[in-house]
Design brief:
The protein is globular, with a radius of gyration of 18 Å. α4 packs across α6 and α5 runs antiparallel to α6. The chain has helices at residues 2-17, 78-84, 90-93, 95-102, 105-117, 129-145, and strands at residues 22-25, 38-49, 55-65, 73-77, 149-153. Helices cover 42% and strands 24% of the residues.
Length: 155
Amino acid sequence: MKKILFLLLVGTQIVCAQATQFVNMQIPSKYLSRASETETFVQDVTVTSKDGRVTERGQMRITVPLTGEGVSKIELSANILRIGGIGADFFVRNPQNFQTYAEEPSHSQCIDNCNKKYTSPDGERLPGRGACKFNCWVSTTVRILEAIATIRSGK
């Protein structure tokens, strides 16, 4: 029995060691949503350093409001920050980059399209709106981070 318990503990530690460590990025307050109803999604990405020497897989975990504008939370796997040489305050220290892409017509049109496509004629939210808005924010986040690394969505 002790041997089985030991193997279970070792196996659990190995699985836990492989879990992605996310860093909660600070978001400029103008774009931060405080909505209580949100959905969280994770996107696998491939990150390559600007000099092309390092390529790793990473993840983005983004929480979007089901109603309203903005983003509730952007989290990046720690290796993205390490490869890019940035900290959790990158977005607030470079608000011009965040503003440029978050206010770009392609981003606002993407969000507007999600709201239109996933709202019923009687104004009810339809399933899929959160995922749609998440995809808008993934694209925008990738564009913001292009200053520090090359990032491709997907595996």
